[in-house]
Amino acid sequence: TGFDADPMRTTQYEIGFRQQIGENAAIDISGFYKNIIGQTQVQRVVAEPGAQSTTFYTIGNGDFATTKGVEIRLTLRRIERLQAQLNYTLSSAEGTGSNETAYYSASYNGTAIPTITSPLDYNQTHRGSVLLDYRFGPNDGGPVLQNLGANLIFSFSSGHAFTYSIAAAGGQADPYTAGTDYMIDTRTREAAETIGSSTTPWNFNMDMRLDKSFTIYDKLMATVYVRVNNLLN
User: Fold this and answer.
1) Most buried residue among 8, 31, 62, 153 by CB atoms closer than 10 A?
2) What is the DSSP letter of 107?
3) How many CA atoms lie within 13 A of 128 on its CB side?
4) Whole-number pLDDT of residue 219
């Protein structure tokens, strides 16, 4: 429940097109833009003199964020048992706060809440995947290989934004010591760089699935499959 009368407002645009490339491929390109004003954030309220509680915190509307980017998808129809798809997204997500408690320490200390946009914690500049599917159809490859298929998904993404900080005098607090000693309270940390200017490492992952279908009776079929997540560990 917030005390701000202005509700959250969203403005969103998206445009795209599809183009066939030869007889076996097609490419989809789309651009998107989304602006959100009035996202929830912790806000500090100072009560009138003489009140039983002089200061309290509530959730109000204040943060805003902008997400924009381009999505590209290249699809190749099945040729000689192989089908493929390539997906790639280039995007940018910036705003004043990644979540409603992003600037709780500013509210707690009574300082100004930042209004300058910076990369949000969930921002990923690059994201994509490659899908390969190879399979034998009915009456293809003999009794052993017919209706046998393999599916491989390779996904990648750039890191998330974060900020290097100068730890408190006593070092970083952990879940067991946070709030027990002001010397290790993480609210005393200071940013050592511009907010969100560093990123975590890239992520790469490969999943695989093998499956084979059997005819049990007439049109009744069953599929047995093996799925391996994170194939390369």
Assistant:
1) 62
2) H
3) 16
4) 84
CB 199, CB 158: distance < 8 Å: yes
> How far is the C-alpha of 86 from the C-alpha of 88, rounded, in Å?
7
pLDDT in tens, 73-90: 999 999 999 999 999 999
CB 227 within 8 A of CB 207: yes
Q: 145 CB contacts (<8 Å, ≥6 apart)?
A: 136
Q: Work out the angle at residue 65's Cα, subtended by the Cα atoms of residues 60 and 69, and round it to the nearest 5 degrees.
A: 160
CA distances from 211 to 98, 188, 226, 233 (A): 41, 55, 6, 21
Distance CA 153, CA 133 (A): 9
β-pairing, 148-157 vs 126-135, is: antiparallel
Q: Residue 133 in contact with residue 86, Cβ under 8 Å?
A: no
**183, 169 contact by CB (below 8 A):** yes
The sign of the CA dihedral 71, 72, 77, 78 is negative
Cα 29 to Cα 4, 14, 72, 169, distances in angstroms: 39, 11, 5, 51
User: From the CB of residue 147, how many other CB atoms can be counted at a distance below 10 Å?
Assistant: 19
